[in-house]
Specification:
The structure is a homodimer. By secondary structure, chain A is mainly alpha-helical. Chain A folds into two domains: about 400 residues, no CATH class; about 150 residues, 2-Layer Sandwich (Transcription Regulator spoIIAA). The first copy, chain A, contains 28 helices and eight strands. In chain A, strands 4-3-5-6-7-8 form a six-stranded mixed beta sheet. The first copy, chain A, has a two-stranded antiparallel sheet with strand order 1-2. At the A-B interface, helix 2, helix 3, helix 11, helix 15 and helix 20 of A face helix 2, helix 3, helix 11, helix 15 and helix 20 of B. Chains A, B: It holds the Pfam family STAS. Chains A, B: It is found in: Membrane. Chains A, B: One of its GO terms (cellular component) is membrane.
């Protein structure tokens, strides 16, 4: 080992005479200073749980200031509220009124998705937005019930209790689930586990949402065709829904209902189209639902169509958010059921809200702290569960309208919730004669936007594996159930991660002409190999899950090269340079793999050389005494330096 | 966008006047050719399931040759057998005899670990090694029953049936488990899922083995102190074992047993020590067990110590491997139990065998095909389960002896199994008076070698996280059960993988003096930042699991730098260069993150520049139209090129 080391040193000396600016690096890659264990541990912890460095602003501040800062951290309104002015309020007022007009009909419709009376949808658009307005850090999100969560909650709770025969138990379980959904969300935020929702990949969400949209639209056919729910399936998958629709055909669909529903659906879609074509007219689709509700209600009222079997909403309770804390199951078997359902629905609601928050934040370039968001959303749902609300979250459609209507702060949500409050108090009688068909049309026209074909196409273009996840989620939701879709999506996403860590890429490098840069010869065909040297780049951290593969793959590169050389009678390989730039970390299994690699190479008298190990890798290599094994002077800053030293003859023509 | 692009082009032109050898790369990073989807898919599939390219030798061979090759692939003996000669046989004969002398006493002892009669241990050293000899690709591994698997199998099956009261059912379940262990192993191999066992990291195995060794040693105290098994606990954790040992104290330990056991244990340990000190005397510890068996048996025989309560092995069935196919449960609930136990024990057996195979293969530098190995091991256990054998695998201790005794091929295993055959046929009467205490001493002295403290220390030195996995597995085995230990180990290993993919490292780069190389300024303090530019390196593939973190982390680097500059009244940042060398892949979520990053930067009028994206990343960037967004001329081969173009004033002093 030693004498070999010396002989290398000579080579280096020779090398230096040609390019003396090499000296700095060769000793630069020396034994690193012992890493401070505690510090290292702290950084890892920090980066894992506090990547956004939330306490940065607290640094060296007086105590009083710190208190204010922490209050502001919990209630951002204290921060932005101080710079609030009448100009901002104008924006918020208009936006608030617009989303209110959109949310009222949607709320009534969505609550039917959750098998709840209309008022609960309205309740959920009153309390939660208020709570969020004080705690949330997003400026554009519009809070309230949303289609997907309503559907999910409805189907899950329906399995436990029948909303028609056991309305009270059903309602209690809804509140229980809402409570635990809030607890789950807040806990994730407090424990800084926000990153967990990142495991639901964008692709999966796209597929999931499209699937859910179709499922919801199918559910609406019930109200749309005027089928009484006792003839309608409890399943949500396309096949059973279609079956029960055709089975119910001979019970007779209600033609009046269909006419009303269809005509207004057309109206809504036209309005949507106008809004899309001309962004200035965004308010057309925004108020269209309310208009169609008013018109259709008036129509039914004068024609008494409800006597001809046109189902109507009926009387709505005028009370404002009655307390429901006593209704929550805090004991017994139902507690567990509510807990399970709450976690599931809560996670979905979270994903949707955070996705919206991030989107608009990046459009206006402000930061939303994911974990803080979760605390806000969680608190609002906990409070909601005690005031007769079911799970609320950020709504895609309303947030977009809110943004386009020029909202400035969460005040637009406060405006909205006030309008909802007044509606519950004074305007509910107006909705008595509103035909359910209208609500179905409104829901259908709303969820259609969730079917994002362009996104799916883009995903296909960019990443086939993501596309599989996307389609998997979609088919799962449409043909089995919302849960199945989720499960498929998550499973595929994890499979992808495992594949990544089990089979990392490796590449053969060559020298790009007229430079000292070495790159993948497949990517840069003009790159030329160096005779007598094989340069391999490893494209991932070397961990137990891939160390053996990497070792064997590198050996295969070598033997393949050897065969080529034999075929063309060229000098045999003397050096194997492993480019470690992409290797961000290594573990004991990785070190062992490299030791085995070194031994195998020794047998074939090929020398192992390492290029550009990063700090962490270098530390661990030294901790394991690997450099003494292969010789310290076998580790270089760049491949170019390694080549300089390995094949001195090369130096002339550089 | 467009005009901005042009303005950049001018900058590039200016850049070029200074260093005209830049031209090649700037157009080199152009739109890549459309990737061939099918080809890509095929490569991924190949690298995942056929990383060792097993069919390479089959390429363009005549049909007849292909048949021979495939036969040789299944039965490697056909390949090495042809070059077999008398010289090799001498080595194999000596090695075979040595491991035989070691395995016979071990087999008898290990079968007691599995609560089986002695002959089953011997059976398992006869058939499986023969089968493996024809199919296995390792040359040094010694096949037979091993301590850990015997213990695991014993404890698992004991939970279903009591070996004393229900011996037949117990035996049948053992064979069933063995059968399904074999099926599992073979299936993994055939489906090319060998990489799955890599998920049990080296660190975890070290901890697991040490823990198992201690558990086994504790179990031996029963035989060692002469405690009758009805007073002994069925649990394997240290606490319950210690309890029942002290509880049994007043039932009286058998002093004769203790004396015999202790004295021979000392003898065995001394022999071990000699063997360790002087490698030439490796045969001393190898034959010591047999000698102590003979001596102690003779001693008991003449002193009739068995009448004074010294437990002895007793009569051993002379029949050779009676068929047991009819004993396997192919139906009923026991089928499932056997299946579950088989999978568990089979995986452990596999891990041990493959680890041994790899170790010796890398010492003699020959390839063992992991998947082929599994097929061989699986077949041998399936055949074994039909010939009254229980799970056999590669033994650490015997393989080491085999290697040191100079074995050449698997013939040494054939020799061993022949010796075992003769033993069963003619010598079993000799073992009638062998005291169990000796077997306990032999097992203790054998498993002590599995406690690898040096390895644990090394793991601690190299990687703290691995150490946690190691200790976790160890404590799990010692204080709960073998399964618990496994579970802990695997769980921690997965947590590590998830951490890696959720929180990748990022680093701020600086220019190393007198070079055009840019490196982490934390690792190379002498590296200098470039004014007006921030260079960030991302150290992992950008996936949905980390895309948001990476985006926000990069923005944080930027704002931190901005603050520093403001503090020192330096020009503000105009360019953010993201070094993508370590980014081996990106998915749709990653692309979205970069788009959001670009938008945020635009708001702060900082220009986004990318350096050295690899083929896969470049393809996906172009597929998503990202280059058009930031401008194609914003993607460079190296950071140096990017700097050349971004800050022309820099070119003068390069």
């Amino acid at each position: 080992m030693a004498d070999q080391g010396d002989e290398d040193l000579d080579i280096i000396q020779k090398g230096l005479t040609f390019s003396d600016n090499q000296t700095p690096y060769i000793h630069k890659i020396g034994a690193p200073p012992k890493p401070d264990l505690l510090k290292e541990f702290k950084t890892t912890l920090k980066e894992t749980f506090f990547p956004d460095d939330p306490l940065r602003s607290f640094k060296d501040q007086p105590k009083s200031r710190k208190i204010i800062l922490s209050l502001q951290a919990i209630f951002p309104i204290l921060e932005w509220g101080r710079s609030y002015n009448i100009k901002k309020f104008r924006g918020d007022l208009i936006a608030g009124l617009t989303i209110a007009s959109l949310c009222i009909p949607q709320d009534i419709g969505y609550s039917s998705l959750a098998h709840l009376k209309p008022q609960y949808g309205l309740y959920s658009s009153f309390v939660p937005p208020l709570v969020y307005a004080f705690m949330g850090s997003s400026r554009d999100i519009a809070i309230g019930p949303v289609a997907v969560v309503s559907l999910l909650l409805g189907t899950l709770v329906e399995r436990e209790f029948d909303p028609n025969t056991q309305p009270d138990e059903y309602l209690r379980l809804i509140f229980t689930a809402t409570f635990f959904a809030g607890i789950t969300q807040a806990t994730l935020g407090v424990l800084r586990l926000g990153f967990l929702i990142d495991f639901l990949s964008h692709a999966a969400v796209v597929g999931f949402m499209s699937g859910a949209a179709i499922t919801i639209a199918l559910q609406q056919l019930k109200g749309f065709l005027g089928i009484s729910s006792k003839h309608f399936t409890k399943e949500t998958d396309v096949i059973s829904v279609m079956k029960s629709i055709f089975k119910s055909a001979h019970h007779g669909w209600n033609w009046q209902t269909i006419v009303i529903g269809a005509s207004f659906l057309v109206f809504l879609l036209v309005a949507k189209y106008i809004g899309k074509k001309n962004k200035k007219l965004f308010w057309v689709p925004a108020i269209a639902p309310l208009i169609s509700v008013i018109l259709s209600t008036f129509f039914v009222y004068i024609t008494h169509a409800n006597n001809d079997g046109v189902a109507i909403v009926g009387k709505i309770d005028k009370r404002i958010n009655p307390p429901s804390l006593n209704k929550i199951y805090f004991s017994g078997e139902h507690l567990l059921k509510g807990f399970r359902i709450g976690i599931e629905a809560g996670m979905i609601a979270l994903t949707e809200a955070v996705a919206i928050g991030r989107t608009f934040a990046s459009m206006k370039d402000y930061q939303v702290d994911g974990n803080k968001e979760m605390v806000a959303l969680g608190t609002m749902n906990v409070v909601g569960s005690m005031t007769s609300c079911y799970i609320a979250t950020g709504s895609f459609s309303r947030s977009a309208v809110n943004y386009m209507a020029g909202c400035q702060t969460m005040v637009s949500n406060i405006v909205m919730s006030m309008v909802v409050l007044l509606t519950v108090k004074f305007l509910t009688p107006l909705f008595e004669y509103t035909p359910n068909a209208i609500l179905s049309s409104i829901i259908i026209s709303a969820v259609i936007a969730l079917i994002d074909i362009d996104a799916a196409i883009l995903i296909w273009k960019i990443d086939k594996f993501d596309f599989i996840a996307c389609i998997g989620a979609f088919l799962g939701v449409v043909f089995k159930s919302v849960e199945a879709g989720l499960l498929v999506a998550v499973a595929i996403s994890f499979a992808k991660i495992l594949l990544q860590v089990t089979r990392p890429r490796t590449a053969l490098l060559g020298k790009i002409p007229m430079t000292s840069v070495y790159r993948n010869i497949e990517q840069y065909p003009e790159a030329s190999k160096i005779s007598g040297v094989v340069i391999v780049r490893v494209d991932s951290a070397v961990y137990f899950s891939n160390s053996n593969y990497i070792k064997e793959r590198i050996l295969r590169w070598l033997s393949e090269e050897d065969e080529n050389l034999k075929a063309t009678y060229q000098p045999k390989i003397q050096f194997l340079i492993v480019e470690l730039s992409p290797v961000s970390d290594i573990d004991t299994s990785g070190i062992h793999a490299f030791e085995e690699l070194y031994r195998s190479l020794k047998k074939r008298d090929v020398q192992l050389v390492l290029a550009n190990p990063c700090q962490q890798v270098l530390d661990k290599l030294y901790a394991s005494g690997f450099p003494d094994l292969i010789g310290e002077n076998k580790i270089f800053l760049t491949v170019a330096d390694a080549i300089h030293t390995c094949s001195p003859k090369l130096n002339n023509n550089v």
